[in-house]
Structure formats: structure tokens, C-alpha cells
Amino acid sequence: MIGSRLARGRRRWLAALRGLYARPSSALGTSVVAVFVLLALVGPLVSPYGPTEQLFADRSQPPGIHHLFGTDHLGRDVFSRVVAGDRDIFLLAGSGTLIAVVLGTLVGLLATYRGGWVEEVSYRFFDSLLAVPALLLALLLLGSLGPSRTSVLAVIAVAYTPIVARVVRSVVLDTKTKEYVLAARMQGESLAYILGREVLPSVLPALAVESALRFSYAIFLVASLGFLGVGVQPPNPDWGLMVSEARDFVYLTPWTLAFPALGISLLVVGVNLLADGLKNVLQVGEGP
Amino acid sequence: MTGGQGMGAPLVAFENVSVAYRQGRRWSRAVRGVDLGIGAGVTYGLVGESGSGKSTLAQALLRVLPPSGRVVEGTIRFRGEDLSLWPPQRLRSEFYRQVAMVPQDPLPSLNPAHRVGRQVEEVLDPGGLPARAGSEVRRKALAMLEAVGMADPERVASAYPHQLSGGMQQRVLIAMALAGEPSLLVLDEPTTNLDVTTEATILDLVRELVAERDTAVLYVSHSLGVVAELCDRVAVLYAGELVEDAPTAQLYRQPRHPYTQGLFDSVPRLGTTRRSVALRPIPGRIPAPSSLPPGCVFEPRCPIAVGACSQARPALEPSGDGWARCLRSGEIAAGEVDPHQPAPPARATDAAREVPVALDVANLRKRFPLRRSLVELLRRTPQRAVRAVEDVSLTVRQGHTLGLVGESGSGKSTAARAILGLDPASGGAITLAGMPLAPDLARRAPEAIRRLQMVFQSSDEALNPYRTVGAALRRPFRRLGGLDHAHADARVAQLLRDVQLTPAYASRRPAELSGGEKQRVAIARAFAAEPEVLVFDESVSGLDVSVQAAILNLIGQLQQERGSGYLFISHDLAVVSFLADYVTVVYLGHVMEAGPAERVLTPPYHPYTEALLSAIPLLEPGAVRAHVRLEGEVPSPVDVPGGCPFHTRCPRFLGDICVSQAPPWREADEGHGVYCHIPLEELRASQAPAIPFPGRGGDVDGG
């Protein structure tokens, strides 16, 4: 019984993957994201140097056999730094998004299902957060919290929880009046059971797409904060920070700017295409 | 060619028409080889269940098929000319000037940004400037609105579509359709979403207007009753093929195709009950266009199929004054073979009346408070409320069925949800087998919840699309029955057999089930907890008649086996009268009439019951009976009329007393009575039976 359920689950994953590769754009997006994930996982194995290791003899070297992406003015290997930054961005943007998704889903499910003043209060509060531009909100928060990785996580969570909660709300509003939810109530089911087993499954497709989108925006946000110098601090190999540091040397060592910038754009475009593909495969907005 | 007997060349002729839809890279034929001719001035009914291709055929005629659909074979002729050869310019200037269409759902066909009058004027004067007050066009438009029964055409003309009720919108569309004086009017289920009383007035209207103007009508419907009321000739479609085409009288008196016969036997008739006659559902389901049987399309479900039926598709042969696509139609006509489906096993007769009360509801009330605006808050205007249920009392006895009948807005569904505790009642007492129930479901003991269960309305929404049938059915056993996983699984298998499915269904998901199968699972889920009382809220309304018959039989059988009391809610009086032992009629949240079913269905009636019964289309073409029609609209439940709530529309309105005083309960006999100011003797004397053949069996041959 459990074996067959697992087999069915695996078949569905395979079907979803095949769906993603059925269209060229989503196939490209999925592949790009897969490469970046792979790099993040095996990072230390493929990068020849440490991300902060300085080779004074090899300062400002152009890309070549010894240094694939060249070195910067301090003699740090750009390829190693980009790979380490990749892992970093997945950790920061990824866990930030995860927090926002979990919080947004919880609040969205509970407040929308309960309705009444609970819903009113939570969503008015979220609306007021959404009224402030994300970057401005981030700068305000970081100004009071001080720049650190934890603060960056907090910023992503605060900026994106309301957006996730809104997406969840739009689905729950429709689902909570469905007769199968009423039927669950007629079986005396608990609130947790109704939300988790009856309502949540219908939220998941939209949530998957929204999570992918939020993740791509979180990458942007982390990079922007790093670039502005209020996010991740030197000498960490953050892509935004690397672009910012390379600005002064753009005529001497353009590669130090090009590769991290390329990393940001490729990953963001990849994740966006993937989100688009997911939307298509999961038929968000069309029901199961 | 069919149809055009003695009428010269038909206005519209379908010649061997096939329509296909593209699905991925394949084309599947939803309509195959249809031959049909509609003569000028003839009212033609096109009847079929969902999936029969009736709407596709109408769309093909009007050349409004969706982009994935295409006429792949045959010709559609209009006044003898092949329409597919006409250029768009000619279609616009000639064809569309002469045909008009009224769809099922009126609102999308009306422009929300323009006033209704302007839209009628546009049909009268296409491309013209907006009409001025007092102009010829304006005058004609108002006359049109008056012709479709609008009491105040000026007010309707200056309204926007959303400000009108569904019935009014449908009238406006009929006015627009007829304003162009078409020679052909296509009506696609125009009354399916409307209440019976509104449906009756719309049908009257179409009948009158068409007779005046000599317009040909193609009336597409799933309802045999509506078609019998209106049409001269009827074509029956099954799985995309025309199976029978005959004058209405012949079709209803003696169908020549076993499918037509099956349709008739599936429909509960007013005045028949499950105690007197069992419905004969058609087994199986309509084949998908992709998996058609090799011979006759109906062969797998046919009670009289022989070997030759599975060999080749029978031709459409003349039979009597019509046509039938059946090898044995001659034998059927001669009475040599019985085309009825086998009858289900007979049941025990009526049980004794004095059985314990299972559910008692007294003076139930449910109000939904309206929000006050800031100004109203400051002025301390008293808060207003939607009075969905004002005063409803009812009693469900063990092993018996109480039918709760009313039109939309009568508060019957709200009452059900209040009884179940889904929306806590605002007042009144609910007692289950002597035990008072809390208004709110959350405050009821699990045992109380177990004993009072519900079967919902929509087969599509009743099951969670993400969970298997087994998971849905196991839950009540574990939750309310306290069983472990293995025991629950065994009970699920038994339960699936009880609702005539197989245990293999446990691993399926709702998307893999047909509408009837989903409703069986929903019924199984409600029965899992072994409740004493079950509430059915429009639980068979969305189903095709042949499926509905099987579900009605199943519901009756389960009651016999388990002795549960039923509260059966429906807008369909024929279905209610078939299933129910007792009937309560509600209007605007008030009980109008209550009593044993057979007493409620015979005079004396409450004037509202009389109007309801009189509005129901019968399966008897040309039946003579009382003709009572309701004027106006159902009042808003925010301002329920004082006195008798029905006084604003009552055809037997007495005067001030109806407005100022609540009517008394007048008991006619043993538990049957009405709330009315008119004395019973007077009602009895002035009322004719609304059902021409009370207590009649399901056989059609005798009429």
C-alpha cells in the first residue's frame, strides 16, 4: 500500500519533470537552475582556491587556464568566489524565501479560513507593509537591525510574507466554501486537519509557482543589499557585493564585474522561466 | 429527408452532418451523420442528455462552434442553400438577420455597459445612432419589452442588465431575438437556470410569440417535460447520433427507440411515488466519442439488443410519422417486443405512520445581518438583515422522508445548513431523537454529529479532487466510528458495494469518476457514520435523468435497508413527490403548506403550491389542467412583506387582511394544512387538480 503510494508519487514527479522539459523556455530555465544548484552543492570540490584566499603573485589576472574567470586586484580567484557566492545566495535567498512561504501560508490559511476580524486585521497589516517599496522597507529594517546575514533573512521574510499570504488567501477564499470542506466539518474534523489535509493541497500548485517567483526576487534583493553595502559584508563572496567592489576597477579588470553580474542575471532568468514552466505544468488557476 | 413532411422545402436542413473537436492531435466526432429538417413555423425540440451533442449541433447551425470544433462532413442548408459556401458578408447581411439565438445564461449576452433599452433598439436599427425619446425606434423597443411581459417597460429599458433578475434578463434576450423578426429562433436551454414558475411564464411567452409570428424554433433542452409543453416535433440525440425524430404526440405516446423509452422511464412523474412505481434507470453511461461501440451506439445499454445490433450502425428508418434508428423499431411499434429496461425489484409497501420522530425543528430562524455604512452608524439606523429563514418548523420520522420544496430564495438550503450547524441558527429549537442540539456545529458532541449527516448538492465539489475515494470514505469510520485503519478499509469496501460500486473504486480520484459515481461516493460518505437522519440538499438536481433515476432508486433502497430518516430538499416537485412521504412547502423563509405527500399534491392547496404544481411541465403533450401563473418577482428577503409573505404575488389575494395579519394554520386533515386566510372549503371548491392523472403508473402506452 505504502509502496504503491511512493511509486505513484515518483511517477507524478517524473510526469512534472517531463512537463517542464516539454517546452523549450521552461526546459532552459530548469537546466540553468539545475546547473546552479549543482555548483552550490559541489562548490568546494570544483573551486581551486578558497573564496577569500589571496594570491599576491596573480593579482588582476585576466581569465585563462590557471584562473578560469581571472583574479581581482587582491589576487582572489573570481571563479572560486562566484561558486562560493552561488552557495551563499541559495542559502540566504532560499532560507529567506522559505521563512516567508511558511509564515505566509500559515497566516494565510488560518486568517482566511477563520474570516471575520482576524482576517481583516492581518490583511490590513499586510497591506500597510506592501504599501512601502520592498527596497525602502529593507533599508529601514537594516538601518535599525544593523547589517548581518540574519538581518537580510529578516528583511526577506518581512517583505515577502504578505505577498505569499495574499496568494494563499486567493485560493483559500475559493476552497473554504467548497462542499468537501463542509463535509469535513460534518465529520467533526479539527481545524488543523481541515486546513492541512483538505485546504492545503489546493493551495500547493499556486504556492509552488509563487515560491519560485519569490525566490528569484529574493536573489535580487540580497544582491541589491550587498551592492548597496547594507547586506552581506566584506570579505564574504556575495555577488552583489562583488559587483559593487569591482566597480572601481571596471576598466582594469572588467571580468571581476562581469562574472558575478552574469551569475545574478542567469540565475534570476532561470528561476523565472522555471516558475513560468511550473505554472504551466501545475495548471495554476485551472484547478487539478 | 426527414422532417419536412408536407411543408415543402424545410427552412433549415441538416444533411448527414458530423462535427468534430480537436483534442491534441486527434479529432473526435461529437456529432455524427445527423439528418434533420426544420420546416417554416415549426417548433422543433432537440432533446438529449449531457454529451449527446445537442448544443454542438445548434452551434454548428449558427456557425459559432468553438475554435477547436469544425463541421467535418455533410451540409447545413438554409432555405436550400449550403451555408458553408456563403461569404461572411452574406452571412451577416442575410443569415444573421433571419436567425436569432437565446442562450442558457443570459447575462454574458447582454452588454453590461449599456442600458437594456438601447440594446433592444440596436437590434431594431442596426448601426443607427442612439434613439431619441419619443422616436419610432424607441417606441418599438418599448412595445417589444411590453410584448415579453414586462409590466413597466420604461423602467426596464432604463435599467442595466445586472439590475434585472435572471428571468427578466431572459425576457430581454427574447425581446431582442424577436425584435429582428427572425424566421428561425434557436433557444439553447433558456429556462434551465430559472425557477419553475418563471420557466412556465417564459414558455407561455415563447409559445404565444411564435404562434403570432410564424417563426420556426429549434428548442434545445435536456427536459422531456419542457419539450412536450412547447414543441410540435422532437428529435432525440444520443451520443452524437439522432436516434429518433417524431411528432411530439407519437414520441410521447409510443417511443420507437429503446433509448427514448429509457428516458421516459427515468423521469419521476408528478403523482407517482416510489411506493407505487420504481424508476427504471438506463444502466451504464454514454460512450465517449473516442470509444464508440462498433454497431448501434446504444447497443451496450439496450435491453432488447440482438446480435445484429453490434454488427453495424442501423440506418434512420421511417417509423409511423417519424424516424427511428433502431433495427427493432418495427417490432416495438407493433408491440412485439418490450423496450423497457427491466424494473428493479419491488419493495415493501407503505409502512405505518406512527413511527418515532427522528428530527424535530421548531420555529427555525436564520438572519444574516447586513453591514451598516458609516452614515447609518452615525444616524443610529437600526441594523437590517437578510431574513433567509423566518419561521420554519418540520418533523422527520424514522425511516421516512420529508421533502422540503421551494424556489430559489425560499430559504430551504439555508434552513438545511442551520439544522446541520454549518451556519448556526439565529433562533428556534433543533431536537435529534429527543436530544436538543446546539446551534453551532463546533459545540455539538461528536455523537450528535455522527447521527445527523448531509449529502451535498454538487457532485463536482463534494469530493476533494486531491484525495482518493478510499481516503475520503475511511475518514468518517476512523473519526466518527473509532475504527483502526485495517477495519476501516474493510468497511469502505462494503460501503462501496452498498452504493453499487466496486471496492476497486477506493484507489481512484474524483477526476476519474463520472457525475453519478461521484454522487454515489458522496452518499456513501454520509452513510459511513450510520446516521439516523440524512439531509439531501438538491443532491440529484445536477444529474442527467437516466443517472438521476438510478441515484433516486439507490437513496430509496438505502432508506429501506437502514431505516434512516431523510430531509430531502429540492426545487423539483416531481422528484420530491416521488421520494417523499411528507412534504413541506416554503416561501421566503415561511412554511406555506405541510402534510403527507399525497395530500399536499391534491386540492385544497395553498395558492403558492397550486402555482408551483401548475408550472411544472408534464410529460403529457396537450394535457388539460389548471393554469396558474405568478406575477412579478420574489421580494427581497431584506424586506419580507408583512402579513402573509406571499400576498404580493398571490393570485387569490383577498385584500387588507393578507397584508396586515399573519395567516392562520388551517388544518385540512391528519397533519395536512396550509397557512392561508382563505377558508379551506373555499379553496377546495375553486381549485382543480393540477396533476391530470394522480397516482398514475410509469407506463406511457395507456395515454
Polypeptide structure, described:
- The complex is a heterodimer of chains A (288) and B (703).
- By secondary structure, chain A is an all-alpha fold.
- Chain A is 75% helix and 0% strand.
- Chain A has a single domain, classed as MetI-like (MetI-like fold).
- With 703 residues, chain B is an alpha/beta fold.
- Among the domains of chain B are: 227 residues, 3-Layer(aba) Sandwich (Rossmann fold), CATH 3.40.50.300; 78 residues, no CATH class.
- In chain B, helix 10 packs across helix 18 and helix 17 packs parallel to helix 18.
- The two termini of chain B are 30 Å apart.
- At the A-B interface, helix 7 and helix 8 of A face helix 14 and helix 15 of B.
Please supply descriptive tags for the structure shown above.
heterodimer, A: 288 residues, mainly alpha, MetI-like fold, 75% helix, B: 703 residues, alpha/beta, Rossmann fold, eight-stranded mixed β-sheet, 23 helices, 31% helix, disordered N terminus, disordered C terminus
CATH architecture of chain A: Orthogonal Bundle
List unreliable stretches of 5+ residues of chain A. none
Q: What portion of residues of chain A is helical?
A: over 70%
As a whole number of angstroms, the C-alpha radius of gyration of chain A is: 22 Å
Largest interface: A-B, 17 and 27 residues
CATH fold call of chain A: MetI-like fold
Give the number of helices of chain B: 23
What's the assembly state of these chains? Answer: heterodimer
Shape of chain B: globular
Number of separate strands of chain A: 0
Level-1 CATH class name of the domain at 12-238 in chain B: Alpha Beta
Largest sheet of chain A: none
Report the principal-axis shape of chain A: globular
In CATH, the homologous superfamily of chain A goes by the name MetI-like
Low-confidence stretches of chain B: 1-7, 693-703
- Gap between N and C termini of chain B, in Å? 30 Å
Whole-number mean pLDDT of chain A: 87
Please give the alpha-carbon distance between the first and last residues of chain A: 24 Å
Helix/sheet category of chain A? mainly alpha
Name of the CATH homologous superfamily of the domain at 12-238 in chain B: P-loop containing nucleotide triphosphate hydrolases
